[in-house]
Amino acid sequence: MSSTAPLSAVPASQPVPAELPPELAEIRAQAAAAGLPYAGGIAPRAAWELFSAGKALLVDVRSAEERKFVGHVPGTLHVAWATGTSLSRNPRFVRELESKIGGKEVPALLLCRSGKRSAAAAEAAAKAGLTCIFNVLEGFEGEIDASQQRGKTDGWRLRGLPWVQD
């Protein structure tokens, strides 16, 4: 496990945030002004701060296999955007997401491997009327570098944020 913040800072349960925190309201306004098709993107450290303070839910949208074998952020919810070896899109994703987070206006931060699937998932959620869904930029492992490896230039783990591996 790699961590700069103690795991004791991880919320024991996933309380539903009461309202959109000002930090996310600002990001949503900027995203709307830029014509982004979802509420916006947030840096990993800012996502951790909001999640650990109970101001937003953190939802891992990677496959169950990725969570198990690559690692995951403790205390997160899980709704797979795509499943199986071919990563076929989960046709129930939006319904499952809304059910797990508890409503259309609940602030939720979506995390995937690199930030691409979570952006697509955030866009689908926004099209279905979920108004406070944000993409965690960089993802859990980050982008592929010049050596075709992840986790060397950016991502949740590279930033030293809490994570565990089964």
CATH topology description:
Oxidized Rhodanese, domain 1
pLDDT average, as an integer?
A: 89
CATH architectural label? 3-Layer(aba) Sandwich
Termini distance? 10 Å
Proportion of strand residues: 5-15%
**Radius of gyration over all CA atoms, rounded:** 15 Å
Shape: globular
Low confidence ranges: 1-8
Percentage of residues assigned to helices: 25-40%
Pfam family, one: Rhodanese
Protein name: Thiosulfate sulfurtransferase GlpE
GO molecular function: transferase activity
Organism: Herbaspirillum frisingense
In short:
This protein is of the alpha/beta class and 166 residues long. The chain has 5 helices and 7 strands; from the N terminus they run αβαβαβββαβαβ.
Structure description:
Strands 1-7-6-2-3 form a five-stranded parallel sheet, sandwiched between helices. A two-stranded antiparallel ribbon has the order 4-5. The chain has one domain (16-136): Rhodanese-like domain (Oxidized Rhodanese, domain 1, 3-Layer(aba) Sandwich). The chain has helices at residues 22-34, 44-52, 64-70, 93-101, 116-127; strands spanning 41-42, 57-60, 77-78, 82-83, 88-89, 108-111, 133-136. The chain is built from five helices and seven strands. It is α/β, with parallel strands linked by helices. 40% of the residues are buried. The radius of gyration is 15 Å and the shape is globular. Pfam families: Rhodanese (PF00581). This is Thiosulfate sulfurtransferase GlpE. GO terms for molecular function: transferase activity.
